[in-house]
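HOLO CASE FILE
Compound: pyridoxal-5'-phosphate
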Amino acid sequence: MDNTLQLSSVEAISTQLPEQSLFADIFSQHSGADYEAAINQAKELVITFLNRQKKPFSGISPGQLNLLFEQVDLDVPLTSYQELFHEVDQLYVQHATAFHLPHYIAHLNCPVVIPALAAEVLVSAINSSQDTYDQSAGGTLMERRLIDWTAQQIGYAPEADGIFTAGGSQSNLMGLLLARDHFALNRYGHNIKQDGNPLAAHRFRIFVSEKSHFSNQKNAALMGLGEQSIVSVATDSRFRMSMDALEAAIETEIALGNIPIAIVGTAGTTDFGNIDPLSDIADLAAQYGLWMHVDAAYGCGLLLTDTYRYLLNGIERSHSVTIDYHKSFFQPISGSAFIVRDKTLLQIIKHHADYLNPEDQDYEEYPAQINKSITQSTRRFDALKLWFTLRLMGRNKLGEYIETLISRCKEAAEIVRFDPDLELLSDSDISILLFRYAPEGLPEEQRCAVNQQIKKQLFHSGEVLLASTKVNGKFYLKFTIFNPLLTTADLHDIFHKIKVTGQQHGQQSN
Ligand SMILES: *Cc1c(COP(=O)(O)O)cnc(C)c1O
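Model generated. Tokens follow.
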């Protein structure tokens, strides 16, 4: 290839730009100043968001917001960035949920680290696409290094491989799809990618805990196995998959003539934050010849701390793992990965397109991540965010955040245990707490309603954003502690607000 020739021809084009104004909005060699001005204003609005927002939510209702949206005519463009930022502030930023504030304690939304935000600036502007080397170059190699690094944290051997995905649901899909396709190939010599599901597929069974993520059901449906293929296994007193129940479920399905193909162990359930017994699952998977997938979308943060890494023991014996960097690695959405123990297992999903990844290309020399992707072709360079984070902060600092979350959660559990007005349902291996407002004077039949009111009122006032779930028909409040900056004082304040709100509603219903 003659690089000098190519470079000079680009310069030749750049000197003769027609109709400057028409093209001013295109990110190009001519628009550095326009780009900088726009990005600076965006940055200012972000700073305003940080300085202004005192509560995690404004409390606005969709109805109120809709009134503002009705005034917008999308067919009439605004005339300046000033107007644009003003409009977006009113419609969005002022009311955006502020995950960075400690009184946001609801879902699995982490505050994000600044190096990753700096990376985002590059990711969107340079806009590499990670499908092939010729659309990303160093981007592909960075992604591959980070996949290898993640595999190493899991404890996989160097044969491991994987790909960044859009999220945990998608990574879980890859796990189940590989499990299914390899099963059919090994058992019947049947190629599902080529020929579709075999007749026996309606008897395929996948075992998950009853507290596993719903993406397993959705993915089974997508794969043509139907939600019926998912066997929900009962959990123990700490809401982890019961091994007795798992073995019994496998035996029952076999006795019914059904065909177990995989077990999904959840490392950190969305509702309880607890970790299925991964080593025991690995034993049973080996005994029955099943694929073991670990959904560590939430629990993956434990890979970062030597103190708590033992909680994931057994993960290294799985066939595949889901990692959500946008949960426990403090990365902006999106950032997730699917990692597989042995790279040859990924061969089964490869599809060659002559224009993109032709069969005769040497993929050792010109790697193409597209070969490992099932649902994305054009794909963001999310890996750069993790690269920035890891290179600047290092694994241990992230690990310290995770350790902080775990101790805060323990602290919160203690507060609940010792408060006669609160009732603890479940503390967690990681950072989720389930409890309810349940003072002695409040009759059982009113407790669900009062706790629902607490959550609702705190949401509409925007003061505290809580999550909730139902366990055995009872309504519980849920903390997902994901902010390392949450202090003991914040915790006390949040509990205080919960109790004060509970008292008001408790009295009303008496
Ligand atoms: C959040 C979550 C998922 C889904 O991940 P997304 O990134 O939201 O698609 C899957 N499994 C578990 C256990 C989760 O907590």
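CASE NOTES: The first helix runs from residue 3 to 14. The longest strand covers residues 259-266.
CLOSED: yes
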